[in-house]
Amino acid sequence: MRRLLPAAAVVAALALVISACGGGGETAAPAPSVSDPSKITGEVTWWDTTRPDSEGPTFQALIKEFEAAHPGIKVKYVNVPSDQAQNQFQTAAQAGAGAPDVIRSEVAWTPQFASLGYLQPLDGSRAVDNEADFLAGPLSSTKYDGKTYAVPQVTDTLALIYNKRLLKEAGHEEAPKTVAELKQTALDVKAKTGAEGLALNVDSYFLLPFMYGEGGDLLDVANKKIVVNSPANVRAVETVADLISSGAAPKPATTESYANAMTALKEGEAAMIYNGPWALSEIYQGKEFEDKDNLGIAPVPAGSVKAGAPTGGWNLAIYAGSKNIPAAYEFVRFMTTAEAQAKIAKDISLLPTRTSAYANPDVQGNADVAVFKPIMDTAVPRPWIPEGGQLFQPLLEGYQALVGGDSAPADMLKKVDEQYRGIMKGWS
At 216, phi and psi to the nearest 5? Predict the structure, then answer.
């Protein structure tokens, strides 16, 4: 999603697709049901990928609730940075040693891990409770080859997040609704307040709203076509380049741009960024948003075709080689209940994946969730295919080359297209 797999890991992932072995060489069969779940014992190691300072405490509090309700099961909590977890899990699963019982898997990783045989199938297990209650988009990311390999924990998308005070001082009472308005608003902020208008994050996921806005995409899955090098995407990348060259957005660094953009927003040095609900708990720690009412959230501005942001989120998946499958089932079941999702939404504004959770007063009382929910309803689905997680690195490298002045938009996308053809074998 928003933090990407290193290039070396992409190469490793391609090799693993061909030669999966070790702990995940063959798809595991579902573990037998137990007659009395309260009698289950064991220790479940969980790799959590949230930020340990602003999000981790909420999940650790849920673990305490789980252990109190399941005295025979202990949970070993391990926080693994989200930009390292994918590669670390693959390495451990391939070796057959060191993988956790449960991993918080980014939606794009789930079909890849499943295709490699690293995940426990969950159909018919206690891990999946009332599947019909899950939103269709998040649920679709848990499927591979007709089977279920994860349970949706939280979902997300991108929005325009902005400083109301700075926009008002620049003469704008409302957030921009189009990319053209975004550019003008950003220029007005810079001219009238001295702050930067828009802080960009050089990340593939954050480039997608511009592509979707022009009617572009990365793949045409139904027809097995690579469409990243399209006129629509060229227009989108040209738009981003223009935001930078015009001064509407300062030239971002090619590394640490996410942290830089967040800091600029929190400190009042930039008026607008693109980001998701996962960022809100950190943003509210900034001096500009001690008064939460100063934070504005709006749909991403529309391009010439539409407004569109990508579907993201996180699933809970069980390692196929786990020695604690029944205990892992109970843990996943508990952590994805409507009640658990409501607590997460109340505390840190992450969006539930269950329909019923949105009726919970704690969810309805969170204004940030209320704003993001309709944005989420219009989010653009990503391709839930094993190679989906490998598409971001080439696009990231192209984005970095563009920002660094080493590639023009058309040349950038041509190179990305060439790299995609090395990943998507047999696609036209």
Answer: -95, 175
Domain count, the chain: 2
Q: Where are the beta strands (DSSP E) in 252-378?
A: 270-275, 295-298, 312-318, 351-352
- Output the pTM of the full model: 0.84
Same domain assignment for residues 280 and 417: yes
Helix pair 56-69, 325-335: axis angle to 10 deg: 120
pLDDT of residue 50: 93
Q: Decide if 166 is inside a domain.
A: yes
Phi-psi region of 148 (alpha: psi -120 to 50; beta: other; left: phi over 0): beta
Q: Is residue 175 part of a domain?
A: yes
CA distances from 289 to 58, 162, 367, 424 (A): 21, 10, 15, 44
Angle made by CA atoms 154, 156, 158, in degrees to the nearest 5: 165
Distance of alpha carbon 33 from alpha carbon 206, whole angstroms: 42
Contacts of 378 (CB under 8 A, 6+ apart): 299, 307, 308, 309
d(CA 243, CA 178) in angstroms, rounded, equals 13
Long-range interactions of 139-143: CB distance < 8 A, separation 24+: 139/353, 140/381, 140/384, 141/107, 141/108, 141/110, 141/111, 141/311, 141/313, 141/315, 141/384, 142/110, 142/315, 143/111, 143/384
For residue 233, which of 415, 409, 3, 388 has the smallest C-alpha distance? Answer: 409
pLDDT of residue 262: 97
